[in-house]
Give the backbone structure.
Amino acid sequence: MRRCLVLAEQGRGKVSPNPMVGAVLVRDGLVLGEGWHDVFGGAHAERMLFDQLGDVGPLSDCILYVSLEPCSHFGKTPPCANLIVERGVGTVVVGVLDPNPKVSGNGVSLLREAGIDVVVGVLEDECRRLNWSFWVNQRLGRTAVLAKWAETWDGFIGSGTSERVKISGAEAGAWVMTMRKGMDGIVVGVNTWNLDRPQLNVRGVDRANGVWKQPVRIILDGHGRGVYQPEEESGDLGPLWVVDGHRDMADLLRWLYAEKGLGVVMVEGGAQVLSALFEAGTVDQVHVLRNKNRVLGEGVRSPKLSAGMELRWLEDLGDDEHGYWERELL
Ligand code: AOF
Ligand code: ZN
C-alpha cells in the first residue's frame, strides 16, 4: 500500500495537491501492474492498471491493493468493482472506504458477493489524506481550501503600504507553480489583486497532459473595487471570475463546489481573506514559505492558523523554510 501512495503521487511533485487514487497488482510479492487516477473525468486507477496489464494468466492468486474502495456506480466510467470481478482477482486490499454515498461500502459488498477476499482499512489515514480535497468535497459539500503565503522571518506578509515586497525565493516560486497545477482555482482578495497584479496562472512547469486546464482566477471583490485590464482577461491565463467576497466563507465555498464544480482552490492572500477563512474554519491545508533572509520589523502580520491545524513537516526550499499544516479529515 505504501507503493500505492507513491504511485498516486507520481508526477505531481513532493507535496501532491490532488493525487487521488492508486492501484497495484501483486503476485508472490512481485508487482505485475500499476495504475493511478490523476485526471478528473479520466480513467480510474483500476482501469488504467488493467488496460496496461500484459498477459499474466489468471489472477486468482493475485492481490490487488487499492488506496480507495473500488467504485460500484456508473459515473464517467463503468464500475471498477465489476472490472475486478471480471478479471478474476483473488484478493483485494482496500485502504479506505469511499466517502461518496453512491459507493461507500457497496464496492466492497460487490467484490465479496463475487467470492473475492477483501481486506478493508490499511493505512486508512494516509489514504484519506492522499485524497484530502475529495474528502472535504464529499464530507463537507464544499470546495477544499489550501492556504498559501510567503512571510518574512519575523512573520510579516507585506509592508502594509503600496510598496510591493518580494518575500520568497526562486525555489519556492517553482514549488508554488507545481501546486497551482493541481488546483481548480486560485483565489485572492481584491486588495492583493490591485496591489500585486498577480497573474495567478501556471508557468514554467510541464503541462504535457492535454486534458489539463489553467485554474480559474477568482478575485473576491464585494464592492467592485478591482481594476481589471483587458489583457488580464486573455492569454495563457485561466478564466477570471470576480466574486462577492463579503458573503459567509463556508457559503461561498459550498457555492463554488455545488454550482461551479470546483474541487480544490489555493488561496494566496491577502491577510483579510486568509483570516476570514481561518475564522470560518474553512482552511484544510496551510503552506507557509518563510524567508530566512528577509525581516521587515513592521507591516501586515501573517494570519493566525485556526485551532486543530497540525504541523506535518518543515523543509528547506532554497532560502525559504516551507511549513505544511493540515487538519484532521473526518
Ligand atoms: C475507483 N477508482 O481510481 C477512483 C474512484 O466521476 P467518476 O466516474 O470519475 O467517478 C468518481 C467517483 O469514483 C468518485 O466520487 C469516487 O467515489 C470514485 N473514485 N473509484 O474505483 C478510482 N478515483
Ligand atoms: Zn472506479
Notes: The pocket of AOF (ligand 1) is lined by residues 20-21, 37, 44-46, 68, 70-71, 75-77, 80, 98, 100, 103 (CB under 6 Å). Residues 1-17 have pLDDT under 50 and may be disordered. Residues 134-326 form a domain with the Dihydrofolate Reductase, subunit A fold (CATH 3.40.430.10).
